Amino acid sequence: MDQTRHEGQPIGRRPTLYSCEIVENVLVYRLHGDLDLADPESLVFGRSPTGFHAVVVDLADVSFFGSAALNSVLRLRLDAASLGVTVHLSAVPRIAARVLEVTGADGLFPTHESLGAALRAL
Question: What is the pLDDT of residues 7-24, one digit of tens each?
Fold first, then answer.
């Protein structure tokens, strides 16, 4: 299994917000912690989805998912879609599911119960 791991860059004094890895030609972002950020540029995905089969954003370790996080994930989706790549969400916690539902973004992403389930589906 091809697996490469990278860490997201800390923003100022904030902790790292994500890790990035490649699993079998799938770009995987694992988001961490409280993503209620005032600055919409705080969560910037640092790797282009160019050349990947799919992108999975794993939310299993997210304790809060605010509008800035939603905007970052939507921006990632648009960037990926322009390349013909689909962004999937995995392990969506209730707080993030509610934000996605209220904004109507829940229908924009294929979702999976877990990261493992997402990778198996791809």
Answer: 444 434 445 688 899 999
Q: Structural domain of residue 47, as residue ranges? A: 3-121
Query: Distance between CA atoms of 70 and 77, rounded to whole angstroms?
Result: 10
Amino acid identity at 76:
L
What residues are paired with 32 via a beta bridge? 61
CATH number at residue 113: 3.30.750.24
pTM of the model: 0.85
pLDDT digits (tens, 9 = 90+) for 78-115: 999 999 999 999 999 999 999 999 999 999 999 999 99
Backbone angles phi, psi at 65, to 5 degrees: -130, 100
How far lies 2's CA from each of 26, 60, 61, 103, 119, in Å? 10, 22, 23, 36, 13
Vertex 103: Cα angle to 98 and 104 (nearest 5): 95
